[in-house]
Amino acid sequence: MTFEYAPAPESRAVVDIAPSYGLFIDGEFVEATDGKVFKTVSPSTEEVLSEVALAGQEDVDRAVRAARRAFQKWSALPGSERAKYLFRIARIIQERSRELAVLETLDNGKPIKETRDADLPLVAAHFFYYAGWADKLDHAGYGANPRPLGVAGQVIPWNFPLLMLAWKIAPALATGNTVVLKPAETTPLSALFFADICRQAGLPRGVVNIIPGYGDTGAALVGHPDVNKVAFTGSTAVGKGIARSVAGTNKKVTLELGGKGANIVFDDAPIDQAVEGIVTGIFFNQGQVCCAGSRLLVQESIQDELLDALKRRLSTLRLGDPLDKNTDIGAINSAEQLARIKAVADTGEAEGAERWSAPCELPSSGYWFAPTLFTNVTQAHTVARDEIFGPVLSVLSFRTPDEAVAKANNTQYGLSAGIWTEKGSRILAVANKLRAGVVWANTFNKFDPTSPFGGYKESGYGREGGRHGLEAYLDV
Amino acid sequence: MPTSASAPASAFVDATASDSALRRFLHGLPGVDAVGLEARAAALGTRSIKTTAKAYAIDLAISMIDLTTLEGADTPGKVRALCAKGAHPDPTDRTTPRVAAICVYPDMAATAKEALAGTGIKVASVATAFPAGRAALPVKLADVRDAVEAGADEIDMVIDRGAFLAGHYLKVYEEIVAVKAECGDRARLKVIFETGELSTYDNIRRASWLGMLAGADFIKTSTGKVAVNATPPNTLLMLEAVRDYRAQTGIQIGVKPAGGIRSTKDAIKFLVLVNETVGADWLDNHWFRFGASSLLNDLLMQRQKLSTGRYSGPDYVTVD
Amino acid sequence: MSESTDVKQSDAKQSDAKQSDARRLSVFKTYKLYVGGKFPRSESGRVYEVQDSKGTWLANAPLSSRKDARDAVVAARKAFGPWSGATAYNRGQILYRIAEMLEGRRDQFVRDVADAEGLSKSRAAAVVDAAVDRWVWYAGWTDKIAQIAGGGNPVAGPYFNLSTPEPTGVVAVVAPQDSSFLGLVSVLAPVIATGNTTVVVASEKSPLPALTLGEVLATSDLPGGVVNILTGRAAEIAPSLAAHQDVNAIDLTGAGAGTDLARDLEIAAADNLKRVLRPSSATDWTAPQGTERLTAFLETKTVWHPTGSLGASGSAY
After folding, report:
1. How close A449 comes to chain B (CA, Å)?
2. How far is C-alpha B28 from the geometric centre of its chain's CA atoms?
3. For residue C8, which of C128, C127, C132, C114 has the smallest C-alpha distance?
4. What is the CATH number of domain A262-441?
5. Which of A191, A152, A194, A195 has its CA nearest to residue A173?
6. Helix A79-95 with A189-200: angle, nearest 10 deg
7. DSSP secondary-structure letter at C232?
8. For the domain C33-41+70-306, what is the CATH code?
9. Nearest CA to CA, how far is A423 from chain C (Å)?
10. Where in chain A is the domain with CATH 3.40.309.10?
11. C156 touching B, CB under 8 A?
12. Does the distance separating the beta carbons of B198 and C158 come in below 8 Å?
């Protein structure tokens, strides 16, 4: 007799999705100037969730003007007053967290377990943290009375829609900037619900403007001459384009881009926890995480043992309905992303790497990819170099700590890395040599609003989170 | 299904050749990161077990209970009442499964044996100067012999935690071997580590391997007599140990968390740990037990709720 | 007409013409690049004429090529590991040593700066003194910046979490055009104080103080390759540095605010997402410096590790 878990779906009734949404400009939901709309679908079922206004160039201009108008009053408010708005927002997010978790799961495809236990608590915590900074900026180490920059143009990705919004908006508002934010075209809904939260919180008109759209909307926002600050999270290719487009201007830029994180497991690692860390590292959010530990570097002497344990563990992952509370692996965010993952995985096979996928049945509708390992991978393989942004782990081996570090750093990226060993001095020595902005030792994929996050090299520049995260929004 | 075999497993004869060899072996086991272990146990604790799965889990949990009374005030009457409860946990519903065993002190083993005749329920007896284990080896062995002769099917021994913490692993090992020999073919041996006293997870992993090498049929967390007893993380760690031991030797060992498991919710969390760590092979009362007393009534109330749709109350389950 | 024996080269030329048989012929200096701790000529074999503020010929300076830039990047990359791995205390000692060596050659730099920038002796002396003091200022920062820019983060979980600033790598520096010495020191010192290595493109019209500084650096215990000094046309050398895939950051100060060169360099720098420090208009190099130039070329690395409790019995239950 086996222990079969009965379906345990979280109730969808907690969220009320309207059939259509406008742009949120100057405190009002409005239609796009040219009346264009686009549909957002649930990636686990391909069901259309809502129809959303598509912001064009003129709408970008309206939004930036609204933000500019709001800037003077907002930046002149005492920090303690701005703080209270942010505290209100944090509290309303906590109150509405179940609703937002279900919404995010529907629009993004990630498991409710993650939106409920990771995304939403972090979103609220982020607003709570930066709320407290608003009246303490004199003490932040950027001189007395540091000034905001003005209007921030922010473009966020689809992998953690509401969390990335929080990472962008909370520090921007705390420091006295106003915001125009473009959510990703596949996940616009939580940002539009956030607009409603801003209204509930009584936030002055124009301080936050939300303009859904595709890449060209983002480009128009980033390129708008009256934007003073650009914050972007997304692909390295787009990030480079933004870096070029702002050349010669005074726009301050922070970029949080791609990664190919190495998760290094030494022979003296706490092996069961390392297996969990590897799983968390690459299968959290279906691997659609810029800081994913997508390269497993395992010491050759324990490679077989570790891979056996890993495969055994992957076989217990539960893939399916993202709203089911027992689901570990949800849907891939879009058909396009799924196609990209499949293409890289096929390249991996074509290049001779050995492919293994966890035995699980994929639902017939929606976008799905089984947790997958590639073994016999070397630094020369595409799957070891390109960011896949999906549930695909490339396994490489090493013999010595020197070799591990050399391989870990042998990438154009530099966002994250993991170290697994029980030897303290080795952790510190390896952490010291890794060229990565976040190093998780004997853990992985941990986030906190107090902890600065951001990359070296082509993973971008600037830091989000913590005291460091204020700098990006201050004229210093 | 793999079966237990006499110790030590041939793969590890060298490990137990001397005190120093045993120390090297135990200290060479992979370390445990406490935060990671606890995080994994907590994550599995968020599994949502509903409807049919819950019904299955409740009946399975009832069937895995070592219904226990270990009090200075135990009397034959008390023990007989407990045996009756174990045989028919819910008098209003004869489909309720029986418990796995009744667990008593050695001097009550004969009473329990008689009361359980024909039920299929095992008699488990604690022994070896339970719970402290502070007696000379001959005394401990005599304790075991008494219990076995009184009809105990299972012996729950305590290890010498003092010797373990002093690093005298071979002494602990040899004591288990001697008790195992005393049990012979007549009784299965559960080895209690008193994990709360071993304190660290590294120690719990070492004790698990030491116990398995010495011939334990079951490894068991605790006596229920100290502040910290069975927990999800320490049970998860022991499940990992039996999983790894079977992978290396082919020998399957049982696991018994004991003490502190009082609610259906808790019990189901442990069953999820079993299910997702060692799988279906251990989802049977031959390989997994709960050392508990008050847990049973909570399981029964939840069982009634599932069948009637109403919440039950303590007046609708029996007090024993 | 100077009667002193340590005449400037420009003076010496005229002197030679007029007093050819009365005076000893002075020895000219051949100015060379400073790359990898050595003093090579430009691989291109080219030089260009350097004139003082009145248009008088001072010397020929190497006209660096793109290959010189490439060689300098190789030297800087090679030096990065040891220099970034040196203790902050050690780096501070070396920067202070540079100040000591400069102080010892003060008169020479006063003359060089006076010639290069058309300053009076006394104003040139003030500039050189300020440059020495600037090395001292940054020497003291090496072992303090991590305490200012980094620190522990109180995360909401059983984890130790520490942010530490680290040097970003090889930094190309387009040095200020007008302030050929104090400006140069002000952009160079903070870059190496934090453990970066650098390729500096000196002031195009006044490169000689930079090349003489190379001689000081070479005798100040500074490992070869930490600072590499190129002279020539910024518009020729800087684009190859800005586009170089093994350069991590670029300081555009000398490219000039609002210029096409600065914009083009920033565009080229985007190819590998170099950290870019944009030029600002009208910097007063004599003013006290903040920490901005130190932090501009630092990365923040944040390390997490579980803490947990002492034992299983005191843990999360």
Report:
1. 20
2. 26
3. C114
4. 3.40.309.10
5. A152
6. 120
7. S
8. 3.40.605.10
9. 12
10. 262-441
11. no
12. no
Q: Extract the tokens encoding A90.
A: 């944090």
Residue boundaries of the structural domains of chain C:
33-41+70-306
Nearest partner of B230 among B165, B282, B295, judged by Cα: B295
For tokens 């935690």, what's the residue?
B161
Task: List the single residue in C306, C309, C311 with the smallest CB-CB distance to B36.
Answer: C306
* Separation in Å, CA of C274 to nearest CA in chain A: 7
Q: Residue A273: its chain B contacts at CB < 8 A? A: 32-33, 36-37, 40
Token pair of A11 as six digits:
């109730």
Contact C302 A431 (CB under 8 A): no
Q: Using CB atoms and an 8 Å cut-off, which of residues 142-161 of chain C contact chain A?
A: 148, 151, 153-157, 159, 161
* Chain A contact probe: residue of B27, B32, B33, B287 with most A CBs at under 10 A: B33
Peptide bond into A111 cis (omega under 30): no
Q: Is the pLDDT of residue C20 over 60?
A: no
CA distance A231 to A242: 10
Cβ of C258 under 8 Å from any chain A Cβ? yes
What is the C-alpha separation between B312 and B93, in angstroms, rounded?
Answer: 14
Please state, as a whole number, how many other Cβ atoms lie within 10 Å of the Cβ of residue A20: 13
Q: What is the mean pLDDT of residues A435-442?
A: 98
Whether C312 and chain B come into contact, CB under 8 Å, resolves to yes
CA distance B308 to C8: 107
Q: What is the pLDDT along chain B (320 residues), one digit of tens a residue?
A: 444 445 456 778 899 999 999 999 999 999 999 999 999 999 999 999 999 999 999 999 999 999 999 999 999 999 999 999 999 999 999 999 999 999 999 999 999 999 999 999 999 999 999 999 999 999 999 999 999 999 999 999 999 999 999 999 999 999 999 999 999 999 999 999 999 999 999 999 999 999 999 999 999 999 999 999 999 999 999 999 999 999 999 999 999 999 999 999 999 999 999 999 999 999 999 999 999 999 999 999 999 999 999 999 999 998 87
Q: Residue C13: what pLDDT?
A: 46
Are C301 and A438 in contact (CB < 8 Å)?
A: yes
Please, where are the H alpha helices in A262-334?
Answer: 271-283, 303-314
Cβ pairs B/C, distance under 8 A = 45
Spatial contact of C230 and C48, defined as CB atoms under 8 Å apart: no
What's the CA gap between A156 and A68, in Å, rounded? 21
Amino acid letter for position A379 = Q
| Closest CA of chain A from C265, distance in Å | 8
Mean pLDDT, range C106-111, rounded to an integer: 97
User: Among all residues of chain C, which has the CA nearest to that of A240?
Assistant: C270
Domains of chain B: 10-310 (3.20.20.70)
Answer whether B31 sits within 8 Å of A316, measured CB to CB: no
Q: For the whole model, what pTM was predicted? A: 0.95
Calculate what percentage of chain A has a pLDDT beyond 90. 99
Of B213, B283, B214, B228, nearest to B255 by C-alpha is B283
Does A406 lie at the interface with C, CB-CB under 8 angstroms?
A: no
- For the domain made up of A12-257+456-471, give the CATH fold: Aldehyde Dehydrogenase; Chain A, domain 1 (3.40.605)
Cβ atoms within 10 Å of A94's Cβ, excluding its own: 16
For C17, other C-beta atoms within 10 Å of its C-beta total: 8
Query: Would you place residue C119 in the very low, low, confident or very high pLDDT band (cuts 50, 70, 90)?
Result: very high
What six digits make up the tokens of C134?
């600037």
- Residue A277, chain C, CB below 8 Å: the answer is no
Q: What is the distance of C-alpha C132 from the center of its chain?
A: 14
Instruction: Pick the closest to residue C148 from A86, B265, A140 (CA basis).
Output: A140
Contacts of C158 in chain B (CB under 8 A): 35
Mean pLDDT of A290-303: 98
